[in-house]
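Methods — Computational structure assignment.
A single polypeptide chain was analysed. Its primary sequence is given first, followed by the predicted tertiary structure written as structure tokens.
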Amino acid sequence: MTYQKIKLEKKEQIAIITLNQPDKLNAISLEMKNELYEALGTLENDDNILVCILTGAGRAFCSGHDNDDPIETMFEFASLKEEERLYHFSKPIIAAVKGYVLGDGAQQAMLCDIVIAGDDTIIGFIGAEIGGLCYGSYTILPAVVGHKQANELLMTCKRISAEEAYRINLVNQVVPSDQVMDAALEMAERIAKLPPKSIQYTKKAMRGPLASDHHLNIVDKAWKDILGDLYKS
């Protein structure tokens, strides 16, 4: 498959997926999400690939939702189809982030197994700020940082630095911005040397549901209220 919004590279046993719309700070459109979904499916079935890295082209990982997408695409955009595939991908995924990591971009990074952040990283769950939802975060974010921190991040939409993200366990490492990919590759190579079945079963055992029924019901009602007649169940 030829991708327009992402790049997919393979380095021996490591795959690198790059969000590739740097002129928009890699804002996520429905087309990009669909390409991510397809790329992850391809890598899932590639026995030669043991670890994946998710990163962004240019000076940011992702600035959030691409607001140039027609509003009519929001139902499909918010389906959690791609997020489910990312979260339950059987092989370890390392997010290598720098610059802005906002909204849907913050969700993408959080759903990865390990996050390595550049020292210039700014993270924000800003869905409510623009009248939307950080719908992929409601179950997972409290499990990562605790309910009180999750409440503050989601209800204030504040941006936090890489150092603060490390303090609250949202990222695993903070390195100089120009060393993010080197650190991610070093981590990926270390994981790739371990028995793959052991790593994959470890990951599977640690992954619960991305969204509970309560979560899905609330999100469904929220989108209907926010988008009105444009939202179809």
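Note: The CA atoms of residues 111 and 132 lie 19 Å apart.
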